[in-house]
Please model this.
Amino acid sequence: MSDQDISSKTSSHVISGIFAGERVTTRILEEQIQDAVAQGYRTLQIEAYGQHGIGGRLWRAGNEKVHIQVVGQPGQRLGSMGFPNTSIEVLGPASDDVGWLNAGSEIVVHGHAGNGCANAMAQGKICISGNIGARGMTMTKHNPRFDPPELWVLGSAGDYFGEFMAGGIAVVCGYDAQNPDNVLGYRPFVGMVAGKVFFRGPHAGYSQSDAKLISMGDEDWNWLNENIRSFLNRIGRNELMETFSDRSQWQLIVARTPHEKISRPMRSMQSFDKQVWEQELGRGGLIGDLTDLDRSPIALITTGELRRFIPIWENRKYAAPCEATCPTGIPVQERWQLVREGRIDEAIDLALSYTPFPASICGYLCPNLCMQSCTRQSSAMAPVDVTQLGRASIDAKLPELPPEGDKKIAVIGGGPAGISVAWQLRLKGHQTIIYEMANNIGGKISRVIPASRLPQEVMTKELKRVKDVLPHVNLQQPLKREEVQQLREDFDFVVIAIGAQKPRTLPVPGNERAIAALDFLKQARANKAKAGKHVVIIGAGNVGCDAAAEAHRLGGKFITLLDVQEPASFGKEREAAEAVGAKFKWPVFTKEITSHSVKLADGQEIPADTVIISIGDVPDLDFLPETIAQENGFIKVDDRYQTNDPKVFAIGDVVRPGLLTDAIGSGRIVAQAIGEILEGNVPLPFKREMISRDRVTLEYFDPRVTEFANLDHCGSQCSSCGACRDCGICISVCPPQAISKTELEGSAYEYVVDESLCIGCGFCAAACPCGVWDLVENTPIG
Amino acid sequence: MDAPTSVYKAYYGIRQKTDPAYKCVGCAMCNMVCPNDAITPICGDEADKLRYHIDRGGQPRRRGGRRNVAGGILDRLKFIRISMLTDPALDAGRHEFELRTLLGRVLPPEENLKFLRTNGWIPPVREIYPLIIGSMSFGALSPTMWEGLQMGVAYLNEELGMPVRVCTGEGGCPPRLLRSRFLKYVILQIASGYFGWDEIIHAIPEMKEDPCAIEIKYGQGAKPGDGGLLMWYKVNQLIAAIRGVPTGINLPSPPTHQTQYSIEESVAKMIQSMYMAWGFRVPVYPKISGTSTALAVLNNLTRNPYAAGLAIDGEDGGTGAAYNVSMNHMGHPIATNIRDSYLNLVALGMQNQVPLFAGGGVGKTGNLAANAAALIMLGASGVQIGKYIMQAAAGCLGSESDRCNICNIGLCPKGITSQDPRLYRRLDVEDVAQRVVDVFLSFDTELKKIVAPLGRSTSLPIGMSDALGIDDYDAAQRLQIKYVV
Model:
């Protein structure tokens, strides 16, 4: 409907904004306009004097059209909250916020309009026949119930045009623009979320993140072309139609949809790295000139060289605790391994390579340091019972003896130490001759240790075996100093193994009434000793305990062992003494030995028919050439039991008091040393380091097992510290399946890790029952 | 028949390690690799008893991280001055702001004009972003972390036009960086160990750009009065090359600069020397740890026409290695230090002449922009961050409940403070750089959200303390801000 139609319907009603020379306030003018509309006037002419909001809110006319013509100076917010029935025409410029919150009216301004034109407009149409100020077409909406609002500007828009625009159509014709170089003003369309803007002429940028230029389609062009005619008609500038009909001069900006929004057009960091960073700094970036190390990102779980920790299979690198603590050096766990493999005979026979007395010592006499150190003990589990293996060794078969060579070694003393060294040297093929003072070899084993501790037949059988291997024994041969000198000249080496035979005495009155423990035990062994009812043993060590047991066997009823400190006795000896009711007293100091008692320093008097002194023995070194160095009554030796005379070695109790196994072990070490020297090597005592017990995993074994039924049971409960059991647990637990077993020559094998699969998690090391796997830090990089 | 007997035996089924050296640091790498998400570290609600045993071998505990005390006064400061309408309507997300600060000695206008007229020397001044990445050395940080920070800063400058600056820390500067245009984004630090300075000197003739500034380190908030030590196992070939030292040796920085006998003498001497190195074109300023004697240092600087500013590092600052006791018990809170210093400058009429930079626990609880804005309104011209950027850009796990904190032993599970490629390659340089960019962009928006309602968009509200309030009367009195409840 055209303007002419409206004005022709009714005559124009004039309302002046000035009355009696006074300006009419906005409130009064509004009242007059609303009254006029209510009275039925549909065409009004307002003479404005800056009044606010002229022409809005004329709903009283209902669906009838109302036409407002404004002459003079309208104030701000012309046509605000305008209704669809209203059309407003300003015959000159308009102030700020034209059509504010317009809800449908058509507004035509025949001049410029100020700031905020069409701000928050939701429906209707505003036509400006000039330029507009800042923040035009801002916060506009499009309610889908109605047609979108339109703003038509003949000239240019001011700054911040279309800010927060949320709908509607704006057309900026750029004709006779205030700033011909930029018809859209500074920073337009910031926060624009919907709507479109047609414009004609240059712009100086807009919010790229909110809006985008698109190529105008036919539909848009047709709409523009059609509606611009109506706009020009409204503002009375039809002559411009031709100018505005050039499609190529028009551009179209639309809001970006939410998913098209870009907060900022940003270069990717990768592109910056390669095209800016490395461009300026050179390949490799900041430190590319200083290092070739790869610094590219890696995952948290790595393989190969990038693993922080790597597993290593250290089979037999370390000695099991049993082996490491056995002075004789018997590889106990290896014997159990043979048992597990069903090679019991080999397990038994193996012992003879290490000791001539596997049954007597391992089976009966030894305190079994191997069992004391057994890893199972660290978890309060019963140690594997080696005595079973020891006792079974009575039937061990000798290894084949090599023929005797031309090297000769004299061994002075036929006790355990002397027999051990001679045995080992014979196994190596050397000649040995034993010189024994007594009438039989065996030393302490055959003469001192109570028969109750070692079955006679075991001893006899093992001594027989020794005699078979070592035929050259000179019995009842006490040697003098010159004879020893001569042996040194005649033989390649001399080994002194005479033991400690001379009892220490106690410097108290009446000590002549006492008998030395060693003498007592020898006599007892030969069943020549006697014991009274009351027996006092001074010195409560293991020898004292042996004496106590023998004294009880020989008639003693009340047996007391004295010591100046907590008795050092332990094990079977101590148990035997306690079993016969012996009492231990300490700390006490003997003052005197009388014919019927022992008097103590604290005044006590203990009845004593027999007094035995058991405070240790020292060697009798009268025969020793003076050139051989001594120390505190013993022969001085180095780690390999070599004396200061390189041709002379000394082993066993003549060096320092020890266990039988110490004596056997020292013999083995000397035999090795001599063997090395004879081969021209410098003897280096080779002893593998003991494995750390916490590498061994015992969780596989039942802690309730306290007794072992037989050898097989023993073998099954041995964790095989440090030596692979070939159980395959590591293969099973390895998460990336990186471990496999490789068969080597013969029965040998190894477990290998595929580095390309291994992640260095350490499951293998934690799970390995034997402690063969270890997890170590990888070689440092850089 | 014998009476029945009982035998009591204990069986230990679990092997427990109680040595403090094996304590769980809570890094949660277990959680990150567990395919079933079946494991996670949870801190017990009891006080940690290990603290009584952590001095094995008579060595007091050393660690990285910062003061193990949660919270702080910065989080309690509120911005209470809200303008209901501003022109233009300041929308932090959409409007243009010019949030820059000045680093350098700013002359009063009359003097500036006089020197301009008489061809006198006008001190160099840099217009920079008010959030600065504080000093962390190449060596303390891994190569990937350090490069990531530098790359992020370069990106912010060159792609986004934000003049962000980063301080090298004491440990030199890679030769390539010294000879690149990126050097202008870098503040070179000189500290008591002078590590890497010969390499810097050798590079001067080849520099394309001057560095942004020179920071003379006198103290560090995390370990006031104590020196630094880069352990030998971190000194690999790379670190050694950059620092100009042999590999595999300990690198101690003494607690104080040798050959200098008072802070007055030292500041005068050091500032002169460092100005001379770049022909008086590069601003030089000292950094001190928070201390009750800060005003004495500041007053001295006001009389020194070369002093380009003063950086103060408060008690909540972080470090890669320090004695636990230094970290937890030594130092001065930053809020009063900055406030007193600023008010002192006001009293002298010089509040616009000697910029103050605040550091130490800024963003400690994650409120980076709020903490920074509070310090700025208390009087700081800018703030320095260190630990925050490690947490934000590289996922540093360290917390004030003593989680992790093992930066000092070269085993950083995130690869931030490790020199082992197997660890530091867990960090992607580009990812770190991207996170640095993210942090600064979001900080920028948050700072605008704070200053816009104050009606500020083109200048930082430095010392605008009428905008600050706190619900603690004594603190309000002490800081001379409003008490609000």
